[in-house]
Amino acid sequence: QRGNRALWALLGVCVLALLFWIRPESPSFTVNSPPHQSSAEASANLANFRGVGHIFDVIGEYKLPKPVIISTDSAAEIWGNLGVNVRPLGDEKFMVAPQLPSQYRFFNEIDEASLMDMQGQPVKSATNPGIRVEHDVVTEAEEETIIAELREMAVQYGYDFSEEGATMEKSWRITGRDEKKSGLPLAPWGWGTEFNASKLPIGLAKVIERIEQLPGYPLGPIRDVTVNIRSSVDYQMTPHIDPPGDGPNSFVLSLMSGAVVTFS
């Protein structure tokens, strides 16, 4: 378990995403989760699809997107439409183009002390895949302000994000990203090329400004702010890979509790 208000930075290139974990009382709202698409429905949708597509790996019960984009457009056109720089792989396939590791700050003793491998050994700089840790990104007073904002927003924009078949609600989400599920409310700040930081509440806006000012992180435009609210100490999010459209930089901020994040 890591200290409160720690920021985990998963670094690659020119964009930024935020994820907030908090443990408030259950928000006072209920949203029915929409039914999942059948494979036949998904195939029908894919047949009519035009634009940027993605490849998924199905590993057991998990469906994980590969960091590969499929499109008949050029790399420049994809960058303009998706807002993320890509590198051609051939056969109309592209990958999100990473920045050079030398453009980020060096790994330090805080990173090493915060990370361990599956054998419980510290992760040295030579084997660190690109994870950096920044402590005390917000003060305790700022944390309280952010929590109050999110509790208020959860009533209007939050929706049940519990695992399918769960007997009780353990997680809620607030995001401006359209996750292609009808009836879900979207946060006013939007997502991707349409992201509008002026729509963020004051507390979150200050976090964005602070991250943008951190030395050693060559970041581009903000693309996403997603809030995950958990009400159970033992809640575990399903293993996943963020959509390529989020870009290869993610910042994860834990509030009101520590968090254990497993990378594989």
Q: Unreliable segments (pLDDT under 50, ≥5 consecutive)?
A: 10-17, 23-50
Biggest sheet statistics: 7 strands, mixed
DSSP helix fraction = 10-25%
Total DSSP helices: 5
Order of helices and strands: EEHEEHEEHEHEEHEE
- Mean pLDDT over all positions: 76
What percent strand? 15-25%
Structure, described:
The protein is an alpha+beta fold. 20% of the residues lie in helices and 23% in strands. It contains five helices and eleven strands, in the order ββαββαββαβαββαββ. A seven-stranded mixed β-sheet has the order 7-1-11-2-10-9-8. Strands 3-4-6-5 form a four-stranded antiparallel β-sheet, with helices on one face.
Would you spell out the secondary-structure blueprint of this structure?
Blueprint: E1 7-10, E2 16-22, H1 39-47, E3 53-59, E4 62-70, H2 75-82, E5 86-90, E6 93-96, H3 109-114, E7 131-134, H4 140-157, E8 159-160, E9 171-175, H5 202-212, E10 222-230, E11 250-254
Features:
264 residues, alpha+beta, seven-stranded mixed β-sheet, four-stranded antiparallel β-sheet, 11 strands
Care to give the gist of this entry?
This protein has 264 residues and is an alpha+beta fold. Helix content is 20%, strand content 23%. The protein contains five helices and eleven strands; from the N terminus they run ββαββαββαβαββαββ.
